[in-house]
Amino acid sequence: MFRGRIARPGSQRGDHVGPSPVDRARPGSKHHLIVDRHGTPLAVTLTGGNRHDATQLLPLLDAVPPIRGLRGRPRRKPRRLYADRGYDFDKYRRLLWKRGIKPVIARRGVAHGSGLGKVRWVVERAFAWLHQFKRLRTRYERRADLHQGLLELACSLICLRRLRTSF
């Protein structure tokens, strides 16, 4: 009926999409990820490309499931949180201390060489594992729930591969 036109004009890009601040304002999404010390994903979220990383810190911490250890109650929170300069805000440092988590966050405006790269590479490797799934590297889905489902499926496949290599 309307050849070449959409009958209901509206958002053409889908949910959780915003202009990227680093890619000439092209629409995009961000994956936010918390991993353990071995690179196993613990929690993952999806936001628009224009959202700041630090706004997703507390929701990601709340999404971490109980971690079962050898004996006793399962841990609900990590002991330490390693993060890059994007999370360097006194507000978030105070909130982490209140939760009993020691923040190890690189300072903004300070030259590189803090030694944080010795532990941060695990997170970057986890993102590399995540983006080996081509449907996640470039977002083709308009619906955010479908992309979130693919993101969680990829994380579960990464966890399965980690389990296979550990035994």
TrEMBL record:
Record region (Disordered): 1-30
Transposase IS4-like domain boundaries: 22-157
Coiled-coil spans in chain: none
PANTHER family recorded: BLR1914 PROTEIN, PHP DOMAIN PROTEIN
Official protein name in the record: Transposase IS4-like domain-containing protein
Pfam families per the UniProt record, alphabetical: DDE_Tnp_1
InterPro entries cross-referenced by the UniProt entry: Transposase_11
Domain of life: Bacteria
